[in-house]
Amino acid sequence: MDEMEPYAILMIIFSGALMLYAACLYISGDHHMIVRNYAVKMKNKKIYARQMGKVIGLVALAPLLGGLTSLVAGGIYPVLVMIVSFIIFIRLGIRMMRGLY
What we know:
Layout: H1 5-28, H2 45-59, H3 61-72, H4 77-97
């Protein structure tokens, strides 16, 4: 077994779990599935929940990219890919959520 293979498998599984949660949130549109949903005054609760599902799905791509990079390259590259993609996807997610609260 390669040195980074367990890392890759764990990251891909973690990403899959986040994507499953995001899909459930998007499909149901239930704002009660959002942790601490009481902390935000939502204009439209169903649209907010669906948009949050999209954002979580987008952010879930970061560990997936890190895991896939770990299968191809070793060293520090998978961690760098994951950190940079987290930053990019979180910034995109913030832009996607503007105006919904």
